[in-house]
Design brief:
By secondary structure, the chain is mainly α. It has five helices and no strands.
Length: about 140
């Protein structure tokens, strides 16, 4: 079981046991989390497809924004996925490129700022680079 799955499982157990979430709320939360995870995947896929310089913060904010619009479950999924992505992806790149991935602490902090902005309902277009196709 990878760390992202473990965080998901732990969070769901916490919500149900400690917070006393009813079964109806539980299924709603799960649905929101699932849809939020799909929103995050779509933003990631669009970022890879666009391959547009200086657009990563926009896609970070957009994925988190769309996921959080689903409700508490979506916001939770966005936070877990964003944190895992920064922890795992950044470290893996640094190991592969011997500490010179361009994804150091400063970039990771800027990504997390964009993630929080989106989750809090901020307009992702704040981070949209000029010239990014309107498709995105």
């Amino acid at each position: 079981m990878n760390s992202c799955t473990m965080k998901l499982f732990t969070g769901l157990v916490f919500c149900s046991l400690v917070l006393g979430v009813s079964s109806e709320s539980w299924f709603s939360f799960l649905g929101q989390a699932y849809d939020g995870a799909k929103d995050m995947w779509r933003a990631f896929s669009d970022m890879r497809e666009a391959n547009f310089k200086n657009s990563d913060k926009y896609f970070h904010a957009r994925g988190n924004y769309e996921a959080a619009q689903r409700g508490p479950g979506g916001a939770w999924a966005a936070e877990v996925i964003s944190d895992a992505r920064e922890d795992i992806y950044g470290r893996a790149l640094d190991l592969l490129k011997h500490g010179d991935s361009g994804h150091g602490l400063e970039d990771s902090m800027a990504d997390q700022e964009a993630n929080r902005w989106g989750r809090m309902g901020g307009n992702p277009n704040r981070y949209r680079p000029p010239g990014l196709p309107s498709k995105y």
